[in-house]
Each structure stands twice: as C-alpha cells, then as structure tokens.
Amino acid sequence: MGFACIITGFEKTILFDTGSDGHLLLANMQALGYQPEDIDVVFLSHDHWDHTDGLEAVLQRNPKITVFLPADFPSDFKNRIRLAGASVEEVTQAQQICPGVWSTGVLGDGIHEHSLVCSSPQGAVVITGCAHPGVVKIIEVAKNIHPDIYLVMGGFHLGGASLDELRLTGEHFRRLDVRHVAPCHCSSHAARSLFKEIYGADAMLIGVGSEITIPEV
Question: Using alpha carbons only, what angle is made at residue 73 by residues 112 and 132, rounded to the nearest 5 degrees?
Fold first, then answer.
C-alpha cells in the first residue's frame, strides 16, 4: 500500500513520495536497481502516511538530500528531517525543483498537495500523489507551467466517483489535450478501466515495479 516513484534523466534524481513502509520501499528500489544513495531530492506530495512513512528509511541511508514538501506539513515532521541531516524546502507557490522539473505549487482547500511537472522531449509528464485537489485542476495548473501534456500518471483519487463522473473526467483529460494516462494507487479499478476504454493503447495500467521510458522525438 502507498505510492512512490523514481524520476531520472534530469540534473537531480528524484524520489516522488516514499510509500507506507521503509523496508518495502528499499527492497523495491533495490529490485529496480536503485539505492537510497542515488537519490538527490525527495518530493513529498502531501501529508498522508502512505506517501511519507518510507522517508525515515531513506534518510538513514542517505541524509544528504533535499526534501520538498508543502509548507504546512507539521513542524515536528520537518524538524525530524533536519535532525537526520537533510534539508527541507517548504513549497507554497509553483517553483523549479531542478532544470526541467517544477512543483505545481500547493493546491487544495482541504488536503493540501502539490504535483510534479517534468519536461520531456515529448511534452510534460505530470505526476500526482493522490490528486486530492482534483486531477483536472492539477492538469489545468500544470499547463500554465508546460502547455503540452504528454502523460499524466499517479493517483487520481477517483475511488468514490460514479461512472458518469469518471466519463466526465476522461472527457476533461481529452479537452486538455492529455495524450497518455497512467492511473494507479487511489485511482480505482473502475477509473483504470474507463481510461483504458477512452485512451486505448495510450492508457498505461501501471503498478508496483512498472517502468515508463519517455521516447525521444
């Protein structure tokens, strides 16, 4: 349970969220050929245990990282990161993480969350943790950073959505010119099936251990 992914190909190697279990996170990383020492940046999308509880295991192996997180994370959480020897970057507005990679800035009226926008030769890749502020809203904000969206992937938070709501969401994706989708985590089986129906071969049904390579132009 939980969500984490590694982004490579930029100046910094980024771990997006850390899942719910540090031991499992490190085992999965090793299976994919990564070690905590390879990570330069940890990007925490929001303050839920299934996205943050693996962080301590990473910091024990590699404290020389910068953790980007919404500024309203609890003070004791941020202090524990600093005590481990890592740096904390508190995010409010959209900002660059490293060349070619940006935070959307923190969104949402209830659960505050930010998402990642990664430039690629094919267009932007938008990565969401749980999309609590609304996945369509996140895409709209991401398009202000990079207007050409190649892929949206991650948790879409559609578990309680009706079929009509799912279809409307899929239609919004199409109107926003999202070319590929990869729903996982909290997106729901119904949403994954609906996106597969709408997007066909352009929908990737990803899960633990999946690897996505963005092709060169």
Answer: 20
Cα-based distances in Å from 71 to 45, 51, 74, 112, 138: 11, 16, 9, 9, 18
Residue position matching structure tokens 């919404």: 70
Six-digit token pair at 177?
A: 């010119």
Pair 90, 116: CB distance under 8 Å: no
* Phi-psi domain of 154 (left: phi exceeds 0; alpha: psi -120 through 50; beta: other): left
C-alpha–C-alpha distance, residues 161 and 108, integer Å: 18
- Domains 1-91 and 94-207 fall in the same CATH topology: yes
- Condensed to tens digits (0 to 9), the pLDDT of residues 20-71 reads 999 999 999 999 999 999 999 999 999 999 999 999 999 999 999 999 999 9
Strand partners, 113: 107
pTM of this structure:
0.97
- Tokens 């031991």 locate to 23
CATH class of 1-91: alpha beta
* Ramachandran sector of residue 83 (left: φ over 0; alpha: ψ -120 to 50; beta: rest): alpha
Residue with tokens 């949403």: 191
Structural domain boundaries in the chain:
1-91, 94-207
Q: Which CATH superfamily is domain 94-207 in?
A: Ribonuclease Z/Hydroxyacylglutathione hydrolase-like (3.60.15.10)
Torsion sign (Cα): 94, 98, 31, 24: negative
